[in-house]
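Record type: monomer structure entry
Structure origin: computed from sequence
Chain ID: A
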Amino acid sequence: MSTLPDPSAGAAVKAADRAHVFHSWSAQGLIDPPAVAGAEGAYFWDYDGNRYLDFSSQLVNTNIGHQHPKVVAAVQEQAGRLCTIAPGFAVDVRSEAARLVAGRTPGDLDKIFFTNGGAEAVENAVRMARLHTGRPKLLSAYRSYHGATAAAINLTGDPRRWPSDTASAGVVHFWGPYLYRSPFHATSEEEECARALAHLEDTIVFEGPQTIAAIILESVVGTAGILVPPAGYLAGVRELCDRHGIVFILDEVMSGFGRTGRWFAADHFGVTPDLLTFAKGVNSGYVPLGGVAISAEIAATFDRRPYPGGLTYSGHPLACASAVATINAMAEEGIVENAARLGEDVLGPGLRALAERHRSVGEVRGMGVFWALELVKDRTTREPLVPYNAAGEAAAPMNAFAAACKKSGLWPFVNMNRTHVVPPCTLTEAEAREGLAILDEALTVADTHTV
């Protein structure tokens, strides 16, 4: 830690927060936000001297770790040269950021529209799809999260959609593949893939293909469970889109930039979408940034027709400088390869070993530094450790597990009946094993809630 404990300073930070900050996704009177004093690499710490190994990457975005010196220096240098400029100008750092992103996206996704984050990227991607096709409807999976803005929250499948769902946004949800809890009664990955594609095709037919502008999917489902699609599924969706003239959008806001051990998760499946959304790992959130990578065909739609969308801070110089530094550092330091190696050699085997020892672990799934442990009451029935969307006392078993992690110095990412293992791509093997040891201890708490 680069700062000494200072509880009085921490108390002042927390008091000011409680007096003035309105927090997202929270009942304001029921939360107690920790006061963070600093962070570096895979760790952050509070004013009381407690240090946490960050197995959440905050919101699965600090792919390059906290305070990477090359990225910090790039932001400082850019601030001294040009802090801001309107998006209508050509600027070296904006062009270079776009070039570096386009150089890593699959296929011909060579035009980049910059946004301030992932939700805005999704908003603009679906707007482009609707304008390109002239069709109104959008299809997305129930197990998904696409953001909290107007269209993005309606596209989202998880319960955060419910309070804002107007039922008038032109969104139709469908079931994606999830063999462990198969909605199709499948018994193998092959069956799950075939039946999920048949279900999607039926949905398209009954909704009217000529009314559907786009299908949006997370390449690997993130917050809703780290669901890696079975072989052939994304290729099957691509074929359905091609057959019916539907725009295929892949949401790589969470899975992109090394998280799965490739630059983009789509690279695992050999699929090129028409539009690809990104944010988070593009610069590890050092400055807000997201974007849409656009195919040549869709970009051509707006060659003589103005695109009716824009943002004051689109391609902000400080954000683009941080992206350039992040992408270059990831390439120079082999950070994407490190994520792949950790998943293959350390996290995957280590998490599967935990499943052998703990009856609360129903399934382990993931790749790279993108994993989930699904916790259950009963391995035979697969009853979740807590009910779907549990709150209050119903969520107590997962809350107890999370508290045990934090007590031992691990900051977990807990959602419903799962803990997601999503550390920075820069994690060392020693840090990975430290985290696995803490999870091993904390899972004994979860085990007490099993039958």
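Annotation 1: The longest strand covers residues 370-378.
Annotation 2: The two ends are 42 Å apart (CA to CA).
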